[in-house]
Amino acid sequence: MGVENGVKTNPEQQIEVDWGSVSGSLNGYYEASVRVLAQDGHGLLAALSSAIAEVDGNIAAVETISKAENEHGFIEFLFALDVKDLAHLKLIIQHLQRVANIREVVRV
Predict the structure, then answer these.
(1) 2-36 pLDDT per residue, tens
(2) Residue 20 lies in a domain
(3) Are the C-beta atoms of 31 and 80 separated by less than 8 Å?
(4) 11, 19, 58, 89: which could form a disulfide with 82 (CB 3.0–4.6 Å)?
(5) Which residues form the ACT domain (predicted)?
(6) Which domain, by its residues, includes 69?
């Protein structure tokens, strides 16, 4: 018996289900957080933003934290991103890893 037949033959067993919104965020996008650790340099934030935009990602928010490590200036970015799905998030992470002087990119 298929689902359609089950509904026809047993209407008393039907329950109301709320699947929620199809999207986790605005316009069918989900929010995901990514942490990027990189050696600080001129134009770094612009390069990261471009890498995200190249694959149709959207930055909902960004936080920066400067760090001093091994006498080199490092900076940490916490991005709140709007992504289509998990594959889209992985693609964004791959593009971020290609930016010069990136030490680490992880989903948080």
Answers:
(1) 555 555 667 666 666 444 444 454 578 899 999 99
(2) no
(3) yes
(4) 58
(5) 33-108
(6) 29-107
